[in-house]
Write a structure and sequence with these properties.
Elements (H helix, E strand, L loop, with lengths): L1 H17 L4 E4 L16 H6 L7 E5 L3 E5 L4 H7 L6 E4 L8 H8 L5 E4 L6 H10 L6 E3 L21 E2 L9 H14 L4 E4 L2 H8 L1 E2 L12 E4 L4 E5 L6 H9 L2 E5 L3 H6 L6 E4 L6 H4 L5 E4 L3 H7 L3 H31 L5 H13 L4 E4 L4 E4 L22 E7 L1 E3 L2 E2 L2 E7 L4 H18 L2 E3 L8 H9 L10 E2 L13 E2 L16 E4 L2 E4 L3 E4 L2 E10 L4 E7 L17 H18 L5 H10 L4
Parallel strand pairs: 1-5, 3-4, 5-6, 8-13, 11-12, 13-14
Antiparallel strand pairs: 1-2, 2-3, 7-9, 8-10, 10-11, 15-18, 16-17, 17-20, 18-19, 21-28, 22-23, 24-27, 25-26, 27-28
C-alpha cells in the first residue's frame, strides 16, 4: 500500500507541475463539510492511506504532510509508514499549523490550490489572510486530483424517509417557523443550508447516504414563504413528496442549487453559516451576506423534554444490549474461547440489533486491547487486529442509532491480571469523569470551561490527555453534533454556551503508547438544577446506563464522595435495566453493580 500511496502523490505532483501549482491542499470534507464522508468524497483517504475521520494533507514539489490531532497520532504513524508523507502532529509544541507551514516555506507569489467544494468559507478566508503577505494566488475552481482517481465510487442515492411520531416532538412546520423567526431577526431574505444534520432535523427526514449517520445528501434554501430541498432525483418517492408539499416544501434537483442561488435577486440578503458552507457555494450567494451560526444548529442541540424522554428509553435499550454483550464476553473468556477485536465488534452490534427501534451503529466500534487501546480512534480491520489474550485492559467505545436516540459509550474491562499502574490510570480517569458528572453551572455558561473539572483530578496525579472531554450528541442524528464542546483548548463563542436540553459526552482518558489506554464515557444532559437570587443553574443528568467495572479501581485513590456517586450510579443502572434483561445478562448486571 505504501508504494501505491507514493505513486498517487507522484501523480498529483505531476498534475501540480502541469497546472503550475506550488502547493495542493486536500482536507477531509465534502460539499456539506461533514465529519463522516460518503466514499465519493474521501479524497484524503485515497491519496494518503490514512483512514481517520479528520486530517488534512498538503503536497508540494518536495514535501507531503498530514496534519492531524493527537487522537490519531498512533494510527497515522502506522498508516503513513514508508509513504513519504510526514506526520504533522497538530497541537504539539513546536509543530506549525498548516497555514504557518505554508507561510514559512512558500515563495512570494506562489500558487496554492484546493477544491473549493471541500473547504469552508471561514477556513478559506483564514488561509487567504495568513498568506496575504506572500501575495499568494489561489486556484480552487478546478479539482486536479479528481481525474487521477480512476476507480472513484459513485455518489450514494439511497431513499430518504420520514422520522415520524411518536419520536418527533416538533412538526416540520414548527421547526421551519422557528428558523424563519431567526431569519427575520437577522433581516435575512434567504437562508441557505448545506449541513446534512441541520437539514435532516429541520425537515424531520432521515437517510443513509453517510455511514453511521442517518442523513442524506441535500441542500436547502429558505425564504419567508419558500422552502426548497435540493436532493438527487429518485431519492424522494411520490408519497413523501406529497407529504412535504403539504408543508410547502418544494423538491429540486441536487445539482441545481448553484443555478438557483445565482438566479436570486442581487439586492437580497442571505443568512449563511461560514463554518458550514463551502467557498464554492458562497460564491453564488447574494451580495448582502449575513454570516451567523445556522439557527437550526442551535435549536437542534436543545432537545425537548419529549426528546429527552425518548433518549432515556433508548439508553435503557442500549444498556440492556451491553449487559447481554458483556455477559457473553466474560463467559466466553472463562471458557477459553479465542476472541478477537473483530469478534467484539460483531457481538456488540448483534446485541444492539436485537433491541427495539435499532437502526445501525452510530460510529465504527473501537475495540482496542492493550496497546491498541492507546490509540483513541483505533479501529480493528481484517488485515490488522489483535486477539484478547494474556493480561491487560480492553477498551470498547461503541454506540447505536435508534429511532428514539443516539448512544455513545466507552468502557474498559480487565482481562487476566491488571497491574497497579493500570489501576491507577483507570481510577484517575474515573475520578475525572465523576467530577464532571457532578457539575452545576449557570445557564449560558461557556461549555469549554467545564473541561477543567474532569482534568483536575488527573492533573493532580500527573496525568492528562490530548483530546477534548466532551462533544455534543444528536437525537437520532450525528453522534458528533455540537455546537457545545467541553475542551479547555477550544475557542469560546456565544453559540457554544450551555443550554437546557443539550446532550454532551463526558469522556476523559489516559493513553500510554504501545501499552494501554483508558477512557470512560457517559452521555449527560443539561437539566435544571436550581434557581436562586444569585444563579439560574443547570446540572448534568447522566443518561448512559451500563456498569463501570469496579475490578480496575484503586479504592485508596477514591474519595468518599466519589465512591458514593459510583454506588448511586450503579444502583440506578440496576433499577432501570433489571426489567429489560434476564438469565446470564441479569446475573452479570447484578454482579457488576454491587456497591464498593
Amino acid at each position: 500500500m505504501a508504494t501505491v500511496i507514493q505513486q498517487r502523490v507522484s501523480q498529483l505532483r505531476q498534475a501540480m507541475q502541469q497546472h503550475q501549482i506550488d502547493a495542493w491542499i486536500v482536507p477531509s470534507a465534502d460539499p456539506h463539510l461533514s465529519e463522516y464522508l460518503p466514499a465519493y468524497w474521501q479524497q484524503r483517504v485515497w491519496l494518503s492511506g490514512f483512514t481517520g475521520s479528520v486530517g488534512t494533507v498538503m503536497v508540494t514539489a518536495d514535501f507531503a504532510g498530514l496534519w492531524v490531532d493527537s487522537r490519531y497520532w498512533e494510527q497515522a504513524t502506522v498508516q503513513l509508514k514508508d509513504t513519504g508523507i510526514v506526520l504533522m502532529k497538530s497541537g504539539e509544541e513546536g509543530v506549525p499549523s498548516l497555514n504557518e507551514w505554508l507561510a514559512a516555506h512558500l515563495p512570494s507569489k506562489a500558487t496554492v490550490g484546493f477544491n473549493s467544494q471541500m473547504m469552508a468559507l471561514r477556513q478559506a478566508r483564514q488561509l487567504e489572510s495568513d498568506l496575504a503577505t506572500l501575495q499568494v494566488r489561489f486556484v480552487s475552481e478546478q479539482d486536479i486530483l479528481a481525474p487521477l482517481w480512476n476507480d472513484r465510487p459513485n455518489l450514494p442515492k439511497q431513499a430518504i424517509y420520514e422520522h415520524t411520531a411518536p419520536f418527533i416532538s416538533q412538526t416540520r412546520a414548527e421547526k421551519l417557523a422557528m428558523v424563519r423567526e431567526q431569519m427575520k431577526k437577522a433581516q435575512a431574505d434567504w437562508h441557505f443550508i448545506s449541513s446534512l444534520d441541520d437539514i435532516a432535523w429541520l425537515f424531520n427526514l432521515r437517510g443513509s447516504d453517510v455511514e453511521y449517520n442517518p442523513v442524506f445528501l441535500a441542500h436547502a434554501l429558505l425564504s419567508e414563504n419558500r422552502a426548497v430541498l435540493f436532493v438527487h432525483t429518485g431519492k424522494i418517492d411520490a408519497d413523501l413528496a406529497e407529504t412535504l408539499a403539504k408543508d410547502s416544501v418544494e423538491i429540486a434537483d441536487y445539482d441545481s442549487a448553484l443555478n438557483v442561488l445565482n438566479d436570486l435577486p442581487e439586492s437580497s440578503s442571505m443568512l449563511i453559516d461560514p463554518d458550514r458552507m463551502t467557498l464554492a457555494l458562497s460564491r453564488s450567494a447574494c451580495k448582502n451576506v449575513i454570516q451567523q451560526v445556522n439557527p437550526s444548529r442551535l435549536f437542534k442541540s436543545q432537545k425537548t423534554a419529549a426528546d429527552l424522554q425518548h433518549v432515556r428509553t433508548a439508553m435503557e435499550q442500549d444498556g440492556a444490549a451491553l449487559c447481554e454483550f458483556f455477559a457473553w464476553f466474560e463467559a466466553a473468556l472463562e471458557k477459553g474461547e479465542r476472541i478477537s477485536e473483530l469478534t467484539i465488534d460483531e457481538q456488540i452490534c448483534a446485541a444492539r440489533a436485537r433491541q427495539p427501534f435499532y437502526v445501525c451503529p452510530s460510529f465504527a466500534t473501537i475495540a482496542g486491547f492493550n496497546g491498541n487501546g492507546a490509540m483513541p480512534h483505533y479501529r480493528a480491520l481484517p488485515e490488522s487486529f489483535s486477539y484478547i489474550e494474556g493480561d491487560g485492559l480492553l477498551l470498547i467505545d461503541s454506540g447505536g442509532q435508534y429511532l428514539n436516540g443516539t448512544t455513545d459509550i466507552t468502557r474498559v474491562v480487565p482481562v487476566g491480571q491488571v497491574s497497579a499502574e493500570q489501576k491507577r490510570d483507570y481510577t484517575a480517569v474515573l475520578k475525572g469523569m465523576i467530577q464532571l458528572s457532578q457539575a452545576v453551572f449557570p445557564r449560558d455558561y461557556p461549555s469549554a470551561l467545564l473541561d477543567t473539572l474532569a482534568r483536575t483530578p488527573m492533573w493532580q496525579l500527573g496525568l492528562d490527555y490530548g483530546h477534548g472531554t466532551g462533544h455534543g450528541v444528536g437525537y437520532f442524528l450525528n453522534v458528533h453534533e455540537g455546537p457545545q464542546v467541553i475542551a479547555h483548548r477550544a475557542y469560546v463563542f456565544p453559540h457554544t454556551f450551555m443550554k437546557e436540553g443539550m446532550i454532551t459526552s463526558n469522556e476523559p482518558g489516559v493513553y500510554r503508547a504501545g501499552q494501554w489506554g483508558v477512557r470512560i464515557e457517559n452521555l449527560v444532559a443539561n437539566v435544571p438544577a436550581h434557581k436562586t437570587e444569585f444563579v439560574d443553574a443547570l446540572k448534568f443528568e447522566t443518561l448512559t446506563l451500563c456498569p463501570i467495572d469496579t475490578r480496575c479501581i484503586d479504592k485508596d485513590l477514591m474519595t468518599t464522595e466519589e465512591i458514593a456517586w459510583l454506588n448511586h450510579y450503579h444502583a440506578e443502572v440496576l433499577r432501570r435495566l433489571k426489567p429489560r434483561v434476564s438469565g446470564a445478562a441479569l446475573a452479570w448486571l447484578e454482579l457488576r453493580t454491587q456497591a464498593i
